[in-house]
Structures
1.
Amino acid sequence: MNQHQLYKLDVLNVFVDKDGNHGNPVGILVDEGGRLDAKTRQAVSSASGFSEIVFISDVALRTIHIHNPLEEITFAGHAAVGTAWFLKHVLEKQVTQLQGREGLIEAWSESDLTWVKCELRFTPPWWHEYVTDVATLEALPGPEDPSQTHTQLWTWIDSASGVIRFRTFAAEWGIPEDEANGSGCMRLAAALGRNLKVIHGDGSVIYARPHLPGSAAVDGRVAIKSPLVNNSLMEQSYSSTP
């Protein structure tokens, strides 16, 4: 017999600027014990309107499932950063790692920034397309070749200090243009072999660092999208079978 359980969906903005503006929203849903099956998690994610929702199925082990509008994925930068921040600042848990679908994602804090690091094999195969200048980049409606998937357009704002302007397109995932994409910044930092500050979307700010060969880290600031009420921003009832 099905039982109805109230699940609370907390919404965070990840990769906000120093004033807490912009950022990419991510939904965090604590599903202790993993009562929601993969089909239900996907239905929730597809209906949410967010580029990702994270389901925490075991708080003690920091076990997570990340879903975009179409499928469960191994890693998403803003989802992982938001989850690490949520565990520390909302659930008041010490966080050194997250248990993802295919392995561990390291996590730590530096000042007001939340960092995560993982192997690049966890990240989508982003296509990085260099554009000559910011004005040209801003004017483009998307990838020059519409057949390109998982495309990031980028150019230097200040190459000496490692500041980049970035735009991300993933229409095949139901995300026409993403406000802030962490995994692509990680891959570009690794490819360029240097630390980056990335200005993304309408004004989101992402930091990325290369690490050992095959891995990279990404970080940023996180803000609650709206004031928390009873530890929740949005509430939905979903049917689950215990």
2.
Amino acid sequence: MKAEGRALADLKVLLAFPPQGHPTQPYLALPSLKAFLAEKGLHDCTVWDLNLEAYDRLVSNERLALSLQRIQGHAQDWGMDDKEQLDPGDLDRFRLYADAMASGPYLATHADKAKEIIRDREAFYDREQYLWAMRTFESGLKLLSTEYYPTLFTAHNYTQSTSIDSSSDLFAGVDNQEENLFAEFFEEEALPRIEKEMPDV
């Protein structure tokens, strides 16, 4: 088997699972594909779970502190403190900004601890610790969503204002730097590593 005149065994392949999927459910198709390729003679194949890496990077004390700082700037630009009354369409944004100001400082100092509990083989099964950790984790996702409003990022879902019904809408969503919550992660974390890896495929 050959690709572009090269033997399959000579190719360097990178299989990457991008966000967004549930962080507790690894995407098993890629390891299965890697095993299939190895069976066919391609052994230089690497699998990256960029979905899990994105969650880990985004829901962290450092990143949530930055998120809170940016939300404060968005709220100021929006004139949140100067509004004497709100239009019905502004209520959601106002609530999200107000909630972010109230919960953001706590989340920016406790997100890393929440992830430690979720990863700990004993603490994970302690009901009180588990519930606190998962609530903190989900609240961190809500804070990130507020930064990119009206984007909504949860462990089960990801939406922007652009639809997913056509490729042109999808590409518009990718290009929308104000709403694309993952663009910064890809530009700063994923793409430089892919360039360094220099895969053929």
3.
Amino acid sequence: MQRLEVITRFLLALALSVFLFMSGISLPPIGALLLPFVAQPVLLFGVKYGIGHGLGVVLVALLVLAIFGGTELSLLYGVFAVLAGALLALVGRLRRVEYLVVAAATAMFAWALGVARYFFGSWAALAGDFRAGVSQQFAAATRMQEQLGFSKESLELVKERMPQLIDMTLQLLPGLLFLTFAIVALINLLSLRRRFPERRSAWFAIENFRNWKAPEPLVWGLIASGFSLFFPLADLARLIAMNLLLIVGAFYFAQGLAVIAFFFHKNNVPRFLRGITYILIVFQQIFTLMVVGLGLFDLWGDFRRLGKDNLTSSQAS
């Protein structure tokens, strides 16, 4: 009976993972919302029945997609297979959530680079294809603004600056891709945390996101990458500095959100007001930068007094 249950759950995890993946790539853009959860059935099965069984699911999924969908689909699914393998191997061993997320995102990023090189043959071809795609998206957005009745002055300004915007997006593509993978990894970790509450203390060093704080040495990466942009550097060095600044800034953005969530919880702020605040933070650049600054200054201000008050886990949360 136990063996039959394992086989049934194995096939269910396999079917759900492949279904989510195929739906995600077949129904853009709405289907893209399903892609972060492709690895979740594998993770749930692997946590319950063991790492070997979880890895077995992704290996069979890769084989099925290669046979019935082709090598390209199998390689794309490999991004989520790498995520599942990394999290199954590291959850419970790396208890700092930022280390888990960075490790998983790095593995996904490395696989994605290999797949991109396989598809396009060279980085120049990849950059050219991406530039063409972004140009089409910007053009479509401009046409939509024209239909919505935006002023001609603002539209002309957008068209004038479009080449610079495309170049900037292309330069920041590695950092944006890495952050996308990091968000996907974090979503899966939060889902595991919710599904297995009894394992939280064994898996994670903190009880709640509201208590999270970026590693203190990370500030030197922010300082080095920020100041390096003001000095004459080789193109590759400047590209690395820009993407590093983007990634480190995302860490302090997350810390700023944690500070806000901490005081929202402490003061019992209504969920409606919390939602409005988070929407403003996401869609208004000035608020986004303010949250990054809040997270950065929390290193010295310790606004939540995490390092001063000897709180229990229940009191802190």
